[in-house]
Amino acid sequence: MIACACVWLACGASVSRPDPVEPPAEVADGGDYAVERADSLAAGEVEVGLGYVANDGHRFTRRRHALFRADSLDGSVRDGPGDALAGAALEGATGGGRFGLGRGVPGWGRGLVLGDPREPWARRERSLRRRSAGDVAWYRTARHPVRLGAWAGSLPRRTHAGLEAGLGTLGVGVAGNRDGEVRASAWWSSDAAGGGKAFEVAVDRRGRWRAEAATVRRAREARLEAWVRAGHAGFRTLGDPRRAGPPAAVSVRAEAPLAGVRSDRVAALGALWRFAPAVSGARAMLEVEHAVADRASVVAGIEEQHGTRRDPAFSAGASSEVNGFHQGAWTEWRGTSGPVRLAWREERWGERAWARGAVRVVVTARVGVESGLGLGMRVTHAVYRTNRGEHVYLPEAESDRLVLRALAGTGEHTRLELRCPFAGGTAQAALTRTLAATHAPRLAWTVEWTRRARLKGEPRSAPGS
């Protein structure tokens, strides 16, 4: 496989490389995780989809979704037995402002009270949408410089409500429920051509507080982001308190062209955090990407991790001793030649220096063929080995979501994907086979059909406009 990769790299075309995706810290180890993909609908488009899923290879369930984007209203709906993303959401403009209904909480500030506070160990800002586990209605005025907003709805196990107001770059808000849980916060943000700054401080009814400040600097193709958080360990976000994150943290992320070459880059991350005096963690990462003759990409990275990302209040036994020292290294090649795409990646993590004492090893190879007629095929094969308590997460893209498949032990995981035009839309099928040393081969399959069309009377527009 290495030899084939080198051949394709020598004659390949340009390559785009997505960053690895990690599940949130509150996701239980060993469980698959599904998250919505950012839709690429242009204004005036609608997408419908129907699919069947069989995670055990035999019994299947039906899954449906519909998405649309108009000039003043966007919406999505998903349903299906056991679908983690089932639910509906609407967002649009009305009465001189914007409103929303469904599985989405209108976050404010830096997310200390509502939404998802940033994770100090994350390599990138979260690009995939994490919905709330309840239905919420909200409204915000669009008048400047004064802004007003209100929301109410059912978050997990309780009904919540909130009010917010803003003047220019300043904002204040208060939220709570009938059980007496109250959170209030004030925030400030400023955007400029060379970057921006932001700050938020939040407090609950018992006086427990949390504050966070951030700055972003840009210089041509380079970007530097740094933020710091401090506060009381007992402060929790509303809705899902597991998403509150560590009360004390500092994180620095940087990315820049390598040696002034735009196609080459270097990225780095350094982070420290603490849940409690005996429960803390750290992460340092360095990754370099080099374009080979502008037709392929070579990536190499190293990383060191200490401690835990688990909040001990929700994870028994989470301590620095349980998830102590890990050091990892990875290499990756990606190349494209005409309709053929090939990728290879090896990742190794150890509990001793230089990634020795391996606790997690995974090698992945992928071959794909794309044609201008809408036909496509991709085969992904992964060989993995993990120690007890360790897991490998492999991303599997579906029509409207990204699934992180959790694997443990020793085995092989193969996925075959096919795509073709059908009935005015696109039909996709995937067959997955997992062969592990501890159990018989497992099969899973999905069959999906999606179609996009334009809403009558809507002008054409570019995605995201």
Would you write up a description of this structure?
It contains one helix and 27 strands. It has a domain at 39-83 and 356-465. The two termini are 42 Å apart. The chain is globular and about 55 Å long. By secondary structure, the protein is mainly β. It has a 24-stranded antiparallel β-barrel. Strands 1-24-23 form a three-stranded antiparallel beta sheet, with no helix packed on it.
Strand and helix map with partners:
Layout: H1 2-11, E1 33-36, E2 45-54, E3 61-69, E4 73-79, E5 87-94, E6 97-102, E7 135-141, E8 146-155, E9 158-167, E10 170-177, E11 182-192, E12 195-204, E13 209-219, E14 222-231, E15 248-258, E16 261-276, E17 279-292, E18 296-307, E19 326-337, E20 340-352, E21 356-370, E22 376-386, E23 392-397, E24 401-407, E25 410-422, E26 425-436, E27 439-454
Antiparallel strand pairs: 1-24, 2-3, 2-27, 3-4, 4-5, 5-6, 6-7, 7-8, 8-9, 9-10, 10-11, 11-12, 12-13, 13-14, 14-15, 15-16, 16-17, 17-18, 18-19, 19-20, 20-21, 21-22, 22-25, 23-24, 25-26, 26-27
**What is the arithmetic mean of pLDDT?**
86
Give the distance, in angstroms, between the N- and C-terminal Cα atoms: 42 Å
Could you state the oligomeric state of the chains shown?
single chain
The fraction of residues assigned to DSSP E strands is over 45%
Please outline the major beta sheet. 24 strands, antiparallel, barrel
Total of DSSP H or I helical runs spanning 4+ residues: 1
Helix proportion: under 10%
The chain-level structural class is: mainly beta
Unreliable sequence segments: 1-19, 318-322
According to DSSP, the number of beta strands is: 27
Alpha-carbon Rg, integer: 23 Å
Sketch the topology as an H/E string, one letter per element.
HEEEEEEEEEEEEEEEEEEEEEEEEEEE
Outline: globular
